[in-house]
Design goal:
Blueprint: H1 2-35, E1 37-41, E2 47-52, E3 59-66, H2 80-87, H3 99-106, E4 114-115, E5 120-127, H4 131-143, H5 149-167
Antiparallel strand pairs: 1-2, 2-3, 3-5, 4-5
Helix pairs in contact: 2-5
Length: 174
C-alpha cells in the first residue's frame, strides 16, 4: 500500500512539474505572439488582431473572425454559414460588385475567407498605409453585404459543389 501511495505522489509531482513547464512555454509563446501583434478596436467595439511579419517588415496580417459557423446551423439551414461567407464577396453598398476584388488586388491582398464549424474568418494582408481601407473593407464585407439576386443562384451552386467535394473525403467526418 505504501508503494502505491509513493507512486501516486511521484506521479503528482511529475504532473505538476510538467504542467509548470508547459505553462511557462505557453507564456513564452503568448509573449512572442503579442510582441508581433496589435489589437485594433473599432468604434463599435469590434476587435481585430493584426500580426507583424518579421521576415517582411511593413507587411501585416490579420483576420476578422465571426463566431458563427456550421455548428450554429439547424439541419434545414445546413450550409448557410458557408453561403453567407461567399455572399460577403458579392459586394456592399459602399463597395458594389467586384470593387472589393479590384481594391484588394491593387493593394496586393488575396480575396479569401474560410468557414469552419465554429467561425467565418476573413484573413487579410496589408501594408501599414492601407490599414484604414483594409479594416473598412473587411468590416463592410462582414456586416453590410448585399445579396444581389444574380449572385445568389451562382453562389448556391458553388457552395453545394464545395460541400459535395468536402464530404466525399472520408477524413471530413473526423
Amino acid at each position: 500500500h505504501l508503494i502505491r501511495v509513493v507512486f501516486i505522489y511521484l506521479l503528482a509531482i511529475i504532473y505538476f512539474r510538467m504542467e509548470n513547464l508547459f505553462s511557462k512555454e505557453i507564456e513564452k509563446l503568448e509573449a512572442k505572439i503579442m510582441s508581433c501583434s496589435d489589437i485594433v478596436t473599432l468604434k463599435n467595439g469590434l476587435k481585430i488582431v493584426t500580426e507583424k511579419t518579421p521576415d517582411a517588415p511593413g507587411i501585416f496580417k490579420g483576420r476578422l473572425i465571426l463566431n458563427f459557423g456550421s455548428k450554429d446551423e439547424s439541419p434545414e439551414h445546413a450550409g448557410v454559414a458557408h453561403f453567407i461567407e461567399h455572399m460577403c464577396y458579392a459586394g456592399t453598398e459602399k463597395y458594389p460588385g467586384k470593387e472589393i476584388e479590384k481594391i484588394w488586388k491593387r493593394m496586393g491582398n488575396r480575396v479569401n475567407a474560410e468557414t469552419s464549424k465554429k467561425q467565418i474568418t476573413f484573413p487579410f494582408t496589408y501594408l501599414k498605409a492601407d490599414l484604414d481601407t483594409t479594416i473598412d473593407i473587411v468590416t463592410q464585407m462582414a456586416f453590410a453585404p448585399i445579396f444581389p439576386e444574380e449572385t445568389i443562384e451562382k453562389e448556391k451552386s458553388v457552395v453545394l459543389n464545395e460541400l459535395r467535394r468536402h464530404y466525399s473525403n472520408p477524413y471530413s467526418i473526423i
